[in-house]
Structures are given as C-alpha cells and as structure tokens.
Amino acid sequence: MKALAGYLAGLLFGLGLAISGMTDPARVIGFLDVAGVWDPTLVFVLGGAVITTFIGYRVVWRRRAPLFEPRFQLPTRRDLDARLLGGAALFGIGWALSGYCPGPAVASLPGLNWPLAVFLVTLVLGWWLARRLAPAH
Amino acid sequence: METMSWLQGALGGILIGLSATLLMGLLGRIAGISGILSGLIFERGGDRPWRLAFLLGLVSGPGLLILTGLDWGNVADDSGAVVGAPANGLTVMLIAGLLVGLGTGLGSGCTSGHGVCGLARLSPRSMAATLVFVLVAMLTVFVSHHWLGGAL
Predict the structure, then answer these.
(1) N or C: at which end does chain B have fewer Cβ atoms within 10 angstroms?
(2) Do B6 and A79 touch (CB under 8 A)?
C-alpha cells in the first residue's frame, strides 16, 4: 500500500509538471527573465500548487496520523543558516542556466536527450558531494 | 493562447498540490523531489520502496501523455510537445546539474520541498530559501541573457 501511495503521488506530480508546462525549460527561463518577454505561467503553477497544498495539509492534519504510517514527519527547524541560504543561491544559478529543477528534469526522462542526461548525472553527483561536504545530522 | 497556458499552469499546479496532499495524508511525508530522489539513491531502509514507486510515477506521468498521444503539454513554442528542448549545450548543463544537486543538497530542498510544501507549511526557512533561489535565478538569467548576450 505504501508503494502504491508513492506511485500515485508521483504520477499526479508528473502529470502536473507536464500539464503545467514545467517540463519545458523555456517556460521556466521565460519566468525568470523579468527584463525580457516575461512568461508568468510559473506563477500560476506555484500559486495553484501552494494554495492546494495549504488547504490539503490542513485537512489531512486534522487526523492524528497519516493513513499508512504512525506519524507525520515534518521539519522542525525554523532558524536561517549559511548552509540553507548558500545552497539556495547555488541552486538558483543552476536552475537559471538549465531551466531545470530536480522534478521537471527527472519527469522529462521520457524525452531524454544528451544535455538532459548530462544534467541528471551531475545532479546526482552534486547530491553526493553535498552529503560528503556537510552531512545533515 | 496565453490565457490557455496560464490556465494549464494553474491546473497542473493543483495536481502538484493534490500529490503533496496525498503524500502527507497517506505517508506523512513532504513531497520534496530532491529529498525523495537523493534519499532513494543514498539511503538504506524502509523508505526505499515508496520512494522508488514515486520516481516511477513521476516519470510515467509525462510518459503516459506521450505514449497515448494526448495533447496536454504546455511547451512554449510547440503545442504538441510534452517535454521541451534543453536550454543549453553539454558544458553548461554539466555545470548546472552540479549546482542544482549541490545547492538542493546543502539547502535541504528545491522548488517542490521549499517552494510548494514549505510555503504551504508557512516555514520561515522555506520562505527564505525560495526567495533566495528565485532572486538569484532571475539575476543569473539577467546577466547571462542581457549582459552576456545569451552566451550562457
């Protein structure tokens, strides 16, 4: 059941990315290009996603626990540190150069090409490096 | 045409929100793609099956649209496509992938974990991270497209 839940969530996420146009790097870079011909599509995607999640979370949090697990696992930290903000800045540069954040890059696998393949390999290498440089706990 | 692509954006966003809600309601987890996938690759334990299933679902969403020939994509210059063309060549993509991996690894999240789930939780860390990566990305596009003339 847990695997089925994971599959369904992944399927909805992948369909959402494809239908919204986030599997198109040009749409993402069009949103980031505020000095060019600005493409607001990403605002609608993020807005729709955040509002739905905001409401959905508050509905499911009325239960004491999720359906298939003993408890909700939520991050508890509230402080800002250099690792969080520096990481976000590095991510921002890479996101702008490629038009890919991790979700759309992986969801674009059915349309695989060499630049995407190279991106995915170094993405995993970057995750490995981050774990080596600064273990989370 | 533009209004249509905005509507598709909002509809896709709602599906992403439903996915995040489903994952929280059933498994009690944040729908953060970088955490789910890097965890699948680098961590052992009981989370592997659902993380692997999530990955398969994530890829099969666009895959099913392509296989069934459904014209539901929202690619800017190609209404029939589901997946857009890469924005850059091999060298830039190599560097970009490394930066996205390192950055989301160190910063504990990406557009989904911080941008969608974190903002919906009203997490101050996610709000700060989202603000930083969006502003830095806008600045990067400004420099590469308008100062360097699209050289990157």
Answers:
(1) N
(2) no
